[in-house]
Amino acid sequence: MLTLFHHPMFAACRFVRLVFGEYGEDLALIEEKPWARRKEFLTLNAAGTLPVLLAEGDTPLVGATVIAEYLDETRGVLKRERRLFAEGPMERAEIRRLIDWYLTKTDGEVTRHLVRERVLKPVMPAEDGGGSPDSGAIRAARANIRQHMKYTNWLAGTRHWLAGPRLTYADLAAAAAFSVLDYLGEIDWREHAAAREWYTRVKSRPSFRPLLTDRVRGLSPVSHYADLDF
Amino acid sequence: MLTLFHHPMFAACRFVRLVFGEYGEDLALIEEKPWARRKEFLTLNAAGTLPVLLAEGDTPLVGATVIAEYLDETRGVLKRERRLFAEGPMERAEIRRLIDWYLTKTDGEVTRHLVRERVLKPVMPAEDGGGSPDSGAIRAARANIRQHMKYTNWLAGTRHWLAGPRLTYADLAAAAAFSVLDYLGEIDWREHAAAREWYTRVKSRPSFRPLLTDRVRGLSPVSHYADLDF
Q: Is A74 in Cβ contact with B93 (below 8 Å)?
């Protein structure tokens, strides 16, 4: 069994857990406090970022896209119609564009900021940057959510899954990001029917179950978080 | 011939140009003002980011890593010992980690900020965010350069090329970032002999020549910028 260093409220870590879940492969989880810069962890990844996968031979693989490409090369190619990636270079490029959209762009404009202010800062020691949330940062992140919802709604309304006719990494990356925001009660699903229908489909998959039981200290999820008919 | 929408001082765009150069393939360049959010450009890439490659069939490919993976799948696999990627999944993961290090981490901690403050703001209209550079942002970015130089010096002192025995995407990503910083005179090479020796080797390659003749309006490069024996 491989080991993942993760944080339960980081979209990129949730994405990797979903991929393992879809491929039916067990994964040992080690929760890492990303602000602690633990020495043993830094020897695995000098950048101190999450996720890090200890792959075959305990080689650390750093970052969601690096891990996803590795898993496709070592698992996905053998999965036939259950492969979470496409065969053709153009279709692969589209899936990669969407992984990057949700795990880099959405993260940098929305997710990461809300997680830092609402989840991490209240439990971080003051000397590591903990303390009261910055309401300006929260407001700025919230102002950006709508654009990402609209874009997802457009994709979900145009295609069966976000990157085309099949479930791919793109859906798992997007759902990972939205599941974090949904936990925090930051998403108004009513205005985005196509996105909601798509998210319900992803959320109903067995791979999603472990994410729906995640809880963070001192912060309960919004009431519909684990509800499959929200 | 394919077309690249780029900015001459963006590391990720330089990286793509270096890859085309190494593969001996001509590339049409269209310089894009990233702050202008030109309508025709946004139809190619709703995120408005650079680089964007118009690939076969004029399909837009967004982002340096997406483009690099596409070029490997459509060109690299045929290049034998001139391939800029490795064969094995682990070696590929290491190359991807380093692309991400230089084009995301170094960019987010150093390069992007110095380019914004020193290159873009002086020529941007005030209503798009132009104006005087923010000296605090410049100071913060400069404080981070040393760590990236030290890490590169360690890699270059341990391996022949940054990801191992052969020239790969990792070298081109790192050299793209350093070439931008070097243009701006932000690098003190004297303290980092191994990094300097490595950079001299990359800089001497024919693929690098077009980058050494790049000039941006109102800002000349540091005197040794195009000097192969600096």
A: no
Distance, CA of B101 to CA of B80 (rounded, Å): 26
pLDDT tens for chain A, residues 1 to 230: 999 999 999 999 999 999 999 999 999 999 999 889 899 999 999 889 999 999 998 999 999 999 999 999 999 999 999 999 999 999 999 999 999 999 999 999 999 999 999 999 999 999 988 999 999 999 999 999 999 999 999 999 999 999 999 999 999 999 999 999 999 999 999 999 999 999 999 999 999 999 999 998 889 999 999 988 87
How far apart, in whole angstroms, are the C-alpha atoms of residue B99 and residue B122?
29
In CATH, which of 3.40.30.10, 3.40.50.10260, 3.40.1800.10, 3.40.50.720 is domain A2-82?
3.40.30.10
Mutate which: A58, A71, A96, A169, vs B, most B CBs within 10 A: A96
- Cβ neighbours of residue A28 closer than 8 Å, sequence gap 6 or more: A1, A2, A3, A4
A47 with B105: Cβ contact below 8 A:
yes
For B100, counting Cβ atoms within 10 Å of its Cβ (0-12 exposed, 13-18 middle, 19+ buried), the class is: buried
Torsion, CA B46, CA B48, CA B51, CA B56, rounded to 10: 30
How many whole angstroms separate alpha carbon B8 and alpha carbon B14? 7
Q: Residue A23 in contact with residue A181, Cβ under 8 Å? A: no
Which residues of chain B make contact with A107, given a CB cutoff of 8 A? none
Cβ-based contacts of A70 with chain B (< 8 Å): 89-90, 92-93
